[in-house]
Structures are given as structure tokens and as C-alpha cells.
Design brief:
Chain A: One of its GO terms (molecular function) is electron transfer activity. The structure holds 2 protein chains of 2 kinds. By secondary structure, chain A is α/β, with parallel strands linked by helices. Chain A is 29% helix and 23% strand. In chain A, strands 11-10-9-12-8-1-6-7-13 form a 9-stranded mixed β-sheet, sandwiched between helices. In chain A, strands 2-5 form a two-stranded antiparallel ribbon. The longest helix of chain A has 18 residues. The two termini of chain B are 26 Å apart. Classes of the chains: A alpha/beta, B alpha+beta. The complex binds flavin-adenine dinucleotide. The site of flavin-adenine dinucleotide has 23 residues of chain B, from strand 1, strand 3 and helix 11.
Amino acid sequence: MNIGVLVKPVPDPEQYNSITIDPETKRLNRSGVPTIVNPSDKCAVEAALKLKEKFGGKIVIFTMAPPDGREKLMEVLAMGADEAVLVSDREFGGADTLATSYTLVKAVEKKSAESESFDLILSGNESADGATGHVPAQVGEMLGFNHLSAIVQIVAEGEGRPDSLTVFQKIENGKNEFEIKLPAVIGVTRDINKPRYTSAMGVIKAKKKPFDTYDCEALSPDKSRIGIEGSPTKAGAIFTPDTGRKSEELSGSPEEIAEELVKRIKAIGVTINSGGGCRE
Amino acid sequence: MVDFTFTEDQEMLRAAFREFIEAEIAPHAAKWDADDYCPVELWPKMGEVGMLGIFVPEELGGAGLGHIERVMVIEEIARHSAGLAIAVFTHHLCMGAILDGASEDQKKKYMPSLCDGSKICGLAVTEPGGGSDYMGQKTTGVKDGEGWIVNGRKCFITNGGPADITVCTAVTGQDDRGRNQLSCFIFEKEDEGFGPGRKEHKMGLRGSWTGDVIMDEVRLSADRLMGAEGKGAGVGMKAIGEIGRASMSAIACGIIRGCIEESVKFANERVLYGKPISKIQAIQFHIAEMRMWYEASRLLTYRAASLKDKGQPAITEFAMAKGFSVDMSVKASQNAIELMGGYGVMNEYPVERFHRDALASISSGGTTEIQKLIIAGDTLRAFTA
Ligand SMILES: Cc1cc2nc3c(=O)[nH]c(=O)nc-3n(C[C@H](O)[C@H](O)[C@H](O)COP(=O)(O)OP(=O)(O)OC[C@H]3O[C@@H](n4cnc5c(N)ncnc54)[C@H](O)[C@@H]3O)c2cc1C
């Protein structure tokens, strides 16, 4: 079973409070915030590893990222994936989810043409930073594969390469059960599994695994569908909400301040019931 | 030129171990300390991620890496639990002695299960008669046909309780000048007459089992003698001098880093006079000192480990690293306590634990005086004009 997994480096969600938004460019300023592999993408990798343990085959991971995305791909190779593809070019920059999906699909198609085709493409349901959840469905449509999102369980039964998988999708008050014919694209949530820890042996092996970098030329995409040009989404008004509290300073003698405070408290409808000692 | 950077693989390893440690160790460290509980159930998990056999050749079940990586594991564990760190390094210590002194058959028999964590091990040399007087041991090994009969008591032995396999030294004879000759023996938990004695209650490094190991008329077959008869002193000493001291240095580095991280967090959050105390210069000085001690300790520690990886002698370097960094961990944890005021001694913050751990690290792997004797001996030889 050949599985492609789409992974994305994202700023560590635990440190989101250090991310600011530039009001001019409307871009996120993430300097100083460490990058991690998107948490639900790691679950997708784990799901792929489990399927591979059962059915054999290989796992190829794809990421569209700047060149330093290599580091995160190495991490996933160390977890146990077999091959990695870094899709990276300045021309891909500024892509929204549609352009990203298109670019990733081009990479998946190129890899399929070079070796074997994929039975399954897995990805996290959504990225921790963008959280649109668009990519799995868009990739599925563009590849012409069946696709499902919000999957919390994959049941892999029988021996040999399966024609379909039984999967469970999370809905508000329960689960939907589906049988999905392969090839398919599946977006998984973090409920699906607990990703394994990376072992020292995995780290050692990672370096020796095949690693490809696809730039724009390698993919020869329709240029109107990549990067900023290929992105119909334009960020509108974007701002950091003011979470500070309203404050006001009262001045005067302590008695005057106390009078004023009592007046204001009463004005907002609070009744002061004192057991005694408090002047009306 | 000297290069002080870790390789990309080493950084990846550190990140991978950190993820494991933050999930499996950090959340429980305070409880293990309070209960003085050694989490033996973690051994198979640590084995799986390669922490136990990190420096062991692949053909024996290890990851085939070196001592820099091994020291890294210990530093990362000690950042959260110095108690567990000493238990893990003692496992390494015994494995190191086996790698160094055992026959191929013995290595094949014992190493794989020690790498995968299905078994726990320890190294017992210290006796009630004084750990510093290494050659004055009283435990005896007497020939009994093809095999041996061993009698004695070891004390302060880490993993003495939970260990499945323990390597012990015993006196098996004297040389022509009447000096003791030691041999190493491999004991298995099931051996009759062999087993743990009393467990000590330590002020620090809790969460590791420390106590007596008793050998009462233990009969061992010939294949339990590890290395040549009478040549065990060197095997034990090498393991302690290199793996033991490197690890105590790494524990100290982990403690100091923990102190810095906790102090920075506290200083940024604690507001006095309307601003965080991190703005107060005296507080910054506490932090700056800790940082200097950390960097210096780390340099000594990793440099010694890198010499060992290159196959160069590093006994003096490890002694310097151990003596210095343990001293600095005591100072750093005191700094952290001072910086936090009353909170520093409350057990809801970990720094009081770090201080107890630092103090408890002084004698393990040889006291500071013993390190100084080693350093002085080398210096008096090497620095003669
Ligand atoms: C937490 C912990 C874990 C340990 N784990 C193990 C273990 O797993 N296996 C093991 O075998 N041992 C272990 N030990 C024992 C440790 O190695 C000894 O504590 C150490 O060697 C010192 O021996 P001692 O405690 O008997 O002190 P002593 O040797 O009695 O020393 C007492 C004092 O005399 C000083 N002194 C001794 N000789 C000299 C000298 N020549 N010059 C100057 N000063 C001197 C010492 O520095 C010290 O201040 C552990 C100890 C601790 C605290």
C-alpha cells in the first residue's frame, strides 16, 4: 500500500501568544516561535505507519515550505516514513489553500509518475495555524480521488492490499461510518491516535532515506494557479483584539473616592447590604 | 579549529528525546521524588526510543552512537528528574562495564535485553568500608571447582533493588606485594544468596533506588566471571571514571538548566513594585551567574565525552567536568531558591528538589576531593616545565 502523507511545518501552538500580526502586511510575525510538525499531520503519519505495518508498501511525505522545511521532513523520516519530498520555490510563496492544494497535487502526480501511484493520501484534518480544513478535500477533488475529512478511526482488515477502507468520521453527537474506495484522500483529526516517539535508530536512518526537492521548474505548473496569483483568498481586515481591561482613575480625598465608588457601584445596579457600619 | 556545535543528527536526537521526556517523565518527576519511587515500568519505553542502548553497537541491540549522545540523554532526563537520570545512567554504567570487560558470549547474552529495557542493571563496587578506598574492598570471590563462591556487602548501590543483572567487584587474590586483586562478576536476580538489602532514604536523587546489595555464599558458574581473573579493578574504575563521572556531570548540567529555565519563568511572572523582578539588576545577576555556570559545565562535560568518542584518554577531563559541574549545580540551585524568595523552598516549585538533587550528587561517581586528587595528579605530571 503506497501512502502519501501531506505534512506542514507550523509555529508551535503552545507559543501562540508570542505571535503578532503586522497591521500593514496582514502577515503573521512568528519570529522566535519554534516550528513543529502540525500536530494532526503527525497523527496522519502515525496512521500511515500503522497501515504500512499491516499491508507493507511505502510512505512518502510531502511538504510545501521554505527550504528550512527540510528539518521537519527529517523529523518525520525519523518517525519511520520512507521518502520525503520538499516542494519549495519562491514562486509558491503567498499561496492560499487552493494554490497550496494545487501545488501539492502537482508534486504527488510527479512522484507517482516517477515511481508507483498512491493508494492513499493522508493528511491532518487542518493545520494548527490556518485551521481551514480545506486541503484534504481540495487535494481529493483535484486528484479525482474519493475523499473524507474529520476521520477519527481507520479500520484495516484482511490480508493483502485492500480495495477500500472502513473509516469513522467525527460528527457533533457521534460518528459516521464509511467505506471508502481507494485511491482516496483522508483527513484525520488528533483523536485518531497518539503518534509514536521518534527513536534514536529512526534518527540515524533518516539521513539515508531518499529526499527530493521539487521547485517550480520541476513541477511545471500552470503559473496562474500557484503562489499569490493562484490564490483567490485575500485577507480582509485583520487585527489583534484588545484584551486589556477598561480602566479609569479616581482622584480626591479617600472619603471622596469612596463616595464616588459607592455611587458607581449603585449605578450599575449592585445593592450594598451591609451588616452595619456602612453609611448610606 | 575547534567546533562547539552539535551535528544536525544530534540536534534531532535531542529534540526527539525531549519530546519523549516532556511527555513521559516531566509530569511525574515531582511525584517520584515525593514517593521515592523508581519508575521501572519506563524501561521498555526508554529502550524502544533507544535511550538505554544509545552507545551500544547495533549488533548488540543498541543505536550504535557515542558518548556525546549518551550524555545528552542524561542531561535531558536530569532537566526534569535527576533521580531517574541517575538510575538510567547506572544502567549505562553497568552496560559500559560489560562492553569493556565481558566476553563476546556474555555480551550477546546480556546486552540485547538491557538495550531494549526488558532488563535493568547496576554496578556495585562501593562498600561500607569506604567508597574512596576502592582497592580496600572486603567482598571476596573464592574458587570453587570451576566456579566461584562470593561473599560480601555493597552499599549505596543504585538500582540495587530493581536490577535483574548486577556487576560486582570482589577481591579474588593478592599480588606479590600483598595488594588486592579484584575481579568482576555478573549476578542475576535469581542467584541464590544474592539480593538487595536495605533501601536508603536519600535527601535527593529520589526516584532512584539506592541501598545495599548482599552476597551470601553465592555460587556462580565460571561463565559469570567477567573478564580475566584479577583484572576487574580496571574495568570497574574505567566505567566509573568515564561513564559514571560523565553522567554525574550531565545530571549537574540538567539541574543547572532546570534552575535557569525555572528562574527565568518566575522572574518574568513575579511582579514587585509594579514590574517583573526580571527587571531588577540583582535578579539578573543571579540569572547571569547560572548561565555562566551552565555553559562552562556543558563545555567541560561534552568535551570530555567527545574525547572518549575519539578513543582518547579522558579520565582527567571527566574528573574536571564532574567536580566542577556538580559544585555549580549546588550553587545554581541555591541561586534559584534565593531568586524565588519564599516560593523557592516550597515544593510546588521544583527548585528545592533541584537543590536536594545537586547536594546528593556530590559523592556519587567519587567525591569532589577524589576528583581533585585525579586532576592534581595529572596536572603535576603534565605541567612540569
Ligand atoms: C546517590 C548515590 C548513588 C550511588 N550509586 C552507587 C552505585 O551505583 N554503585 C556504587 O558502587 N557506588 C555508588 N555510590 C557510592 C559512591 O560511589 C560513594 O559514595 C563514593 O565513592 C564515596 O564513598 P563513601 O560514601 O564511602 O565516602 P568515603 O570514601 O568514606 O569518603 C568520606 C570523605 O573522605 C574524603 N576522602 C576519602 N578519601 C580521601 C582522600 N584520599 N583524600 C581526600 N579526601 C578523601 C571523601 O572525599 C569524603 O569527603 C552512590 C552514592 C550515592 C550518594
